[in-house]
Structures are given as structure tokens and as C-alpha cells.
Amino acid sequence: MERALVRALCNTGVQVVVLDQPSTLRQYPPPEGVLAIAMDGSDATSVRDAFAAIRAQWSSIDGFCNLIGFMKSWVRIATAPARRGSSL
């Protein structure tokens, strides 16, 4: 779903930024022209740095879509495997 949304937005000319785990960005790189920022959502400094990088690129954000996964048990985000369609 996430990659389909990114492609659809890119196809309409929207400038897109993707924030995700480094392992996920390596395994599923976004399309050319998309700003990809590696971020650990469980780490406040990582989140601040990611939004600072967005701010450096654009003066404002016109839209925000938060697509996250849910896990059956606690797994540190930074070490979670980048598997699509599987359950942790």
C-alpha cells in the first residue's frame, strides 16, 4: 500500500518524501525523485533530524500521510526486519 501511494502521488506531480527504517529503504527504495530519509520512529533525535531535513528542502508541508505497521509483540523498530505482508 505504501509504495503504491508513493507511486500514485509521484505520477500526479506531487513532491514526496518517505521516512522509513534504513533497512526498509534499502530493500524497497522509493522511485527516483523522492526524498528518502532514514529514520527510527522510536528515537526522538532521529525524528527531529528527519523533519529538519524536510524543512531544509521545503518551507512547508501541504499534506502528511502516516502509514505505520502494527506488531503482535514488542520489537525495536531499528532492528525489525523489512518484510512486507508478514506478521511480526
**How many beta-strand segments?**
2
Q: Alpha-carbon distance between the termini?
A: 18 Å
Give a short account of the largest sheet.
2 strands, parallel
Order of helices and strands: HEHEH
Unreliably modeled segments: 84-88
Helix run count: 3
Average pLDDT metric: 81
Helix content: 25-40%
Physical arrangement of strands within the biggest beta sheet:
1-2
Overall form: globular
Rg is 13 Å
Integer count of domains: 1
The proportion of strand residues reads 5-15%
Give the structural class: alpha+beta
Name some characteristics of this structure.
88 residues, alpha+beta, 9% strand, disordered C terminus
Ordered list of secondary-structure elements with their pairings:
Layout lengths: L1 H10 L5 E4 L1 H6 L7 E4 L5 H14 L31
Parallel strand pairs: 1-2
Overview of this structure, please?
This protein is α+β, with helices and mostly antiparallel strands and 88 residues long. The protein has one domain (2-79). It has three helices and two strands. Strands 1-2 form a two-stranded parallel ribbon. The chain is globular, with a radius of gyration of 13 Å. The model is unreliable at 84-88 (pLDDT under 50).
